[in-house]
Write a structure and sequence with these properties.
- The protein is α+β, with helices and mostly antiparallel strands.
- It contains four helices and four strands.
- It is globular and about 60 Å long.
Length: 99
């Protein structure tokens, strides 16, 4: 069964994109892929292990890593409530010192 592998690849130009496409086209088990130069993101649908996809794209010489999903930082409700009701901090910068 095919799985989706998302990689962050350090690509700076269309030549880099071509190198990534070349290795993925030759890789056995790859069903489809999308290379986004602007986001430096490569999405691969393949019947291979994610590590194998990472290793193959790494052969281009581009910095390659698994794309990490954004982690949500959870702030306890009490802290969020305190921050919402706290008065703004007084500015004690250089302008205050000149008074």
């Amino acid at each position: 069964m095919a799985q989706t592998v998302v990689l962050k690849v350090g690509m700076s130009c269309e030549g880099c994109v071509g190198a990534v496409k070349r290795v993925l086209t030759k890789m056995e088990g790859v069903e489809s892929f999308d290379v986004d130069l602007k986001a430096q993101k490569v999405t691969v649908k393949a019947n291979v292990q994610p590590e194998a996809v990472l290793q193959t794209v790494s052969k281009t010489g581009k910095k390659t890593a698994f794309w990490e999903a954004p982690t949500e930082t959870t702030v306890p409700k009490e802290v969020a409530d305190l921050e919402a009701t706290a008065p703004p901090a007084a500015d004690k910068g250089p302008a205050a010192a000149a008074v």
